Protein 1
Amino acid sequence: MGIGVKDVHKAWTWYRKNFGFDIPIFEEAAEANLMLLYTGGKPQSRHAVLAFNMQGGGGFEIWQYTSRTPVNADFEIQMGDLGIFITKIKTPNAAKALEFFKNKNEDTITEIVKSPDGKEHFFMKDPYGNIFELVEFDDWYKKKADKITGGVAGAIIGVTDIEKSKEFYAKILGYDIVVYEEEGVFDDFKGVIGGEGKFKRVLLRHSETRKGHFSQMLNSSEIELVQSLDRDIKKIYENRFWGDLGFIHLCYDITGMAEMKERCESLGHPFTVDSSNSFDMGEAAGHFTYIEDPDGTLIEFVETHKIPVMKKLGIYLNLRKRNPEKSLPRFIINSLQLMRKKD
């Protein structure tokens, strides 16, 4: 999950201490010169950190403009507005997680409620106004009794046409299982801004086990699409740049970028950004591209070519020499712990 912030170091400290994102894959200050379509037509300087939680799940790309002051939406963003509204975070026990954050006086905005599929979950905010759903999951890379959260487990995304969006997320991203699809007013949304309204709501998961170099660590994920039925909606990033404050994109680790390009074009969603061959983030390298979902929400694909294994010793792993469908051995993934940022 990409998160636009005002102070990358302050934000990362909060995400480390509260969500356990303490494994940096890269940290770099540079110019974003390929995102011109989304940055006002000119390159913008930025400082970014990509960090993971070793319990399993997706990472955070914490992203700060340094060439301009990042701006917030000029309206109150509500449930159902178009784009990524909420990031899902894995927890082994929602009740314990809620108690943990309440004891730290963090901004928990709902109590424990069951979702339509019977999972216990709750919502909270970080200090910057971003909303997270802490939801119980069973699959983990590691599961330690003293760890209350894992990594990213998906997102809640506002859409205009739930059927059209279901097709996009199924055919391009493989979310082809409908866990539930309901319409109405939902008790578990109450307490979230705009959550008292009437919605169509669908939860999607993958039918196929994930493959790839990092599949063991990234685990399963889910996408929840929400369509507002009783109010006018706005685009979350209307009149703003990618990289401004909030959830800026949803990123997927993939292999076979050429095949993905063909698939996206055939389904009417061509790449809008393409690093063409390889980008170098100093500590990691690969090929990245972007597409838009039917409402303009940004989806990033990254085909990773190089990652640090023992950065202090200058040891990096070339992934292009490995079977793209096979997960890296656990001892290699575990070596990422050597880069842990401690507080």
Protein 2
Amino acid sequence: MGVRIVVVGGGIAGLSAAFRLRELRPDAEVLLLEAADRVGGKLRRVQVAGAWVDVGAEAMLARRPEGLATVSALGLDAELVHPLTTAALLRTRGANQPLPPRTLMGIPTELDPVRSVLGGPTLDRIATEPDRGPYPPLAGDVSIGDLVDQRFGPEVVDRLVDPLLGGVYAGHARRISLQAAVPALADRLLAGGGSLLLAAREVVAEGARQATDRPVFASLSGGLARLAETLADRGGFTVRCGVTVREIERSDGGFALSGGFALSAGAVPAAERITADAVVVATP
């Protein structure tokens, strides 16, 4: 019997892991198990009036190589599209207005662009932030919301950072890692400390120097969820949906140093036992 690798979780992480495993170990049987009735996780599309519409994430960063490389490997290059027709707006003080420019994930780097959104005391607090130091290097990763709240006040988090991060990461600023969301800013503050305002300004300036004419975002004709669907169809691995993995335990054998694994899956009264030489867990 050949090597079997089981991937638990059929979101984009699990699908990508299974696809990569097939590249690395073409001799292995790769089995992906997903508890839901479909693959894709946060990538999902539905038909509205005959047109496919993403109801999860609708784009990926085109300036990162991993997603585009997967698109190419699946033969979907000709179906790449770049959504550029809609500008972000803030609903504040009873009106819609453009998202202030020259912010870093909503973190102000200058006062003028955010005067229409923030009150006077908060603007004063931002302006004087560099002088309230010295700020030692951060002791470790923090949430981006907590850091901005500490330096600039909650109004900046509530009116700028949270709305922007909520749209990009589908989460709350006070629960999103600074290192994950803005790694260039985190690197500066973890290594050298200093003013948040000045560090954010440096990151924005560096990004402007490196800017190209290439689109920032990319998707696929028919919806980004097609990426997940195509991975499942063409990835060369087996997909089983509607299979809930309830327990993973070590067993004898297998090529892993610690032996193989046994997974208990399916309905509780008659759980199915699935054996594997290795297991990748790609679940929340």
